[in-house]
Structure formats: C-alpha cells, structure tokens
Design a protein that fits this description.
With 463 residues, the chain is mainly alpha-helical. The chain has 3 domains: 94 residues, Fumarase C, Chain B, domain 1 (Orthogonal Bundle); 249 residues, Fumarase/aspartase (Central domain) (Fumarase C, Chain A, domain 2), CATH 1.20.200.10; 83 residues, Ribonucleotide Reductase Protein R1, domain 1 (Orthogonal Bundle). 60% of the residues lie in helices and 5% in strands. The protein is built from 18 helices and 6 strands. Strands 1-2 form a two-stranded antiparallel ribbon. Strands 3-4 form a two-stranded parallel sheet. The chain is elongated and about 100 Å long. The two termini are 45 Å apart.
Length: 463
C-alpha cells in the first residue's frame, strides 16, 4: 500500500522499490510511529476532525498494534509495505476500514518521520546514558579496589608510549571515568536541544488544521513544538549531534581498549583479561587474545563513519524535505547499536580484570621515571630548574651506561654532577615520595585521588 498512489498508474518498478522502500530498516520506528499516531489522533479530535468514538477506536487499535510490535519487534519488517508509516496505516485500515484513512488528515510523512526519529533518538540517548553510568561505575569500582591495596597499586604513566612518571592505577582508571562523564554530559546536552516536536509542520508549510501543537508536544514528552515548519521537517541536526556525541564516546572507549590491550600484552604484562572476555587462536593453542578490547577499538571506526556518512548526505540539501533524508536512519541505528554493545561490555572487562600489582610497581620504578623528582630536589636546593634539568639528564645518561636506576647510584657518584646533592636525596626518589609530592587537586597523590574517587562516586546517577 502506497500513501501517494492516486497520481500514478501501474506498478512501481521492482528496482525502484528496492532503492526506495525503507521498511527493511525503518520498521524499528514502529513503536515511535504508533506513539506519534496516538498523539495525532488526539490532536485532530481536539480540532474537530474525529469524534470521541472515532478517537477511542483509533487509540484502542493503535495500542493493540503497539502490543503486537512489543511482542515481536521485527513484525513490520516481514511485510511488503513501502515504509513503517504505510505499514501502520494499512493495519489500521484493515481493522477499522475508512476510519483508518482519517488518521493522516493534516499530517505528512515528512513531519511524521521527523517526529518518529526524534522519539527514537531520545529513547536511545537515555539508554546510552544508563550504559555510560554503568561503565563509569565499573571504572570507579576498580579504582577503589586498587586504591585500597596496601600499598595502593602504582602504575607507570606514559607519554609518547614511553615511561614517564609513576601514577596510581586508580588515577589511570579515573581518567577514563572523567572522559565518560563528559560523554554523558554531551548526550544530555544533545537530548535537551533535540527535545522539540515537529508534528504539525505538515509537508513543509504547516498543517491547515487548527491543532494545538503545544499540547501535541506535551503529549509526546517534548518541551515545545518546533518554531519553523521548513526546519521542522528537514532538520537532522539532532541526529548529527547525537552521532557526534556517540563518536567521541566511541573514541574514548577505543582508547581504553587500546590501553588495556597494551597492558595485557606479554611485553607489558600489567593486567590479565578474564577468559570470559577473551578468545583463542584456531592455530596456536597457547594464544589468549583480548578480542573484547580490540573490538572496543575496532567499532569506533564504524561509529565515526556513521557521523561522516550523514554529514556528507545533508551538507548540500535544499529546503525542505528531500528523499536523501531517508539515509539518516541506518547510520544512527548502526552507530547506536554498536556503541551500546561496547558500553555494555566495558563493565564485564573491568569487573573481571586481574591487575598484576607487582609488575605494575616494577614498571613504575623502571625507566628512570623518578628523574623529574631528582630535578625537583635540585630546585629545592636553589638550582634553577633549567639547570637542574640538564644535570639530571647527565645523571640519567650515566645511570643508563651503568645499567642502574638513579636510586641505585652511590651518593659519591651523584655529587659528581652537583655539589648540592646530599644524603637526603634518596628519600626524594622513592615511589611513595614521588606520589606524595603530587598531592594537588587533579594530581596522582593518594589523598587527592581518594578525594577524586569520592567525588566521582557522588556524581554518578542513582542506579
């Protein structure tokens, strides 16, 4: 059943239907289309188009249809209709006859699909925010676990993938929690901006029926109606903004996956993945591969690609609606599906992750990562920092030549590089001393990490 057949004769070319029909993917909008249709039925009843009995019959039939879809979400996809809107209308007409044909009075597929998609994206944003909260919680929990150790787990921090300075493992975990918190804020901001209702915009010029658009918006949980009918039917900013938030989230999750892949490798051997989130090799019996983490990294490209795809689709469209906008759905459907599984697997990885604390500590002590602490020691003795930097560089070069850590050098050796160095230098070169010096908001000092952990827990939404 086509919604536009009167102007045309004969049957549509099968190849045209293949490129034109969207039911194979937009069937996912059926729950939202039904919700929007109930709101529209109430609106045109208030406008005098439908009687109270008509409204009752339409609403009951639509609610029955919604129950069918809830029981079998793929039900519409097995039909032969052009799109989800045609499927809903056909089912109404089959049940109610000519009354089913009245529902579309004053409504266009243009404002209908714009409304459906906003409702779907809003539902998905809410789901992603819940998943982000669970992922953040898992990072907080492992941060709390490793901070409670005696001593707290210390990890080598890296820049340029070279050992840089020691940090608490908890500080590392909270860095990713901070990223995911911002991602949640971006989704919330996108939700706030998109929560306006296009229904009543008609095809492009607004409906000719005196419907109460503010009430329609309230009925569907929107904050207000859209202010311009041309924009209302053609705007896909809300999809782009949601895809942008999804892409940044996917990039953050990818970075987490990459860190875990590196730390779990035999070369680093700082963490070990649980068997439940790992796989083996079809050829090499000894292999244990971090596939879950690798897919966190791999799926990011797919999500980012969805954003780029839709940006290219909409960049040159004239006002108002164009059929190109049918291509808005598959990118957002795909991106949200794959981001969802990534976010849901993060807690599985983190809750079962084994941290090799001794290896982490050994790594934090290696690579002359206390060189900056030695420079700070020299500064405390009155040496200008740039001069101290040069002195410590020479000390490191000497230590490398000797195959020793800085703290393993004798005092007599150190004093060759600067006469201000005294025996108290060694107390400045330990891991504990280096961490304790960084008791500053945002730093890796144990007390401030504990404070940051408490704040992160407080900011988490309730379960």
């Amino acid at each position: 059943m086509a919604l536009w057949g009167g102007r045309f004769e004969g049957q549509a070319d099968p190849l045209f239907r293949e490129i034109n029909d969207s039911l194979p993917f937009d069937y996912r909008l059926a729950p939202q289309d039904i919700r929007g249709s109930i709101a529209w039925a109430r609106a045109i009843h208030r406008a005098g188009v439908l009687s109270a009995d008509d409204l009752m019959k339409l609403t009951a039939t639509l609610e029955s249809l919604a129950a069918e879809v809830a029981a079998d979400p793929a039900l519409p996809s097995r039909a032969n209709d052009e799109d989800v809107h045609s499927w809903v209308e056909r089912r109404l007409i089959e049940s109610l006859g000519s009354l089913g044909k009245k529902l579309h009075t004053g409504r266009s597929r243009n404002d209908q699909v714009a409304t459906d998609l906003r409702l779907w994206v809003r539902d998905e944003i809410d789901a992603r925010m819940n998943e982000l909260a669970a992922a953040r919680r898992s990072l907080i929990e492992i941060a709390e676990r490793e901070l409670r150790c005696d001593p707290p787990t210390v990890l080598s921090g890296y820049t340029h993938l070279q050992r840089a300075q020691p940090v608490l493992f908890s500080h590392w975990a909270l860095a990713y929690e901070a990223m995911l918190e911002r991602d949640s804020q971006r989704f919330a901001d996108a939700r706030r901006r998109m929560n306006i209702c296009p229904l009543g915009s008609g095809a492009l010029a607004g409906t000719a029926y005196q419907v109460d658009r503010a009430q329609i918006a309230r009925d569907l949980g929107f904050d207000a109606p859209t202010t311009n009918s041309l924009d209302g039917v053609s705007d896909r900013d809300f999809v782009l903004e949601t895809l942008a938030a999804a892409s940044i989230t996917a990039a953050h999750v990818s970075r987490l996956g990459e860190d875990l892949i590196l730390y779990g490798s035999q070369e680093f051997a700082l963490v070990e993945f649980d068997d439940s989130v790992s796989s083996g090799s079809s050829l090499m019996p000894q292999k244990k591969n971090p596939d879950a983490a690798e897919l966190l990294r791999g799926k990011a490209g797919r999500v980012i690609g969805s954003l780029v795809s839709l940006l290219v689709t909409v960049k040159g469209l004239p006002l108002a609606y164009n059929k190109d906008l049918q291509e808005d759905k598959e990118p957002i459907f795909d991106a949200m599906d794959h981001l969802s599984v990534c976010l849901r697997v993060v807690p599985r990885i983190m809750s079962t992750l084994k941290v090799r604390r001794d290896a982490c500590r050994k790594g934090a002590q290696g690579g002359h990562s206390n060189a900056t602490d030695l420079a700070d020691y020299l500064v405390s003795k009155g040496v200008p920092f740039r001069e101290a930097h040069d002195i410590v560089g020479a000390v490191v070069r000497h230590a490398i030549g000797m195959g020793l850590a800085i703290e393993q050098l004798q005092l007599e050796e150190l004093t060759r590089f600067s006469s201000v160095i005294q025996s108290d230098v060694f107390s400045s070169l330990s891991l504990q001393a280096g961490l304790a010096k960084r008791e500053i908001p945002g730093g890796t000092g144990p007390h401030h990490v504990a404070h940051a952990l408490a704040n992160a827990k407080a900011r988490l939404p309730a379960r």
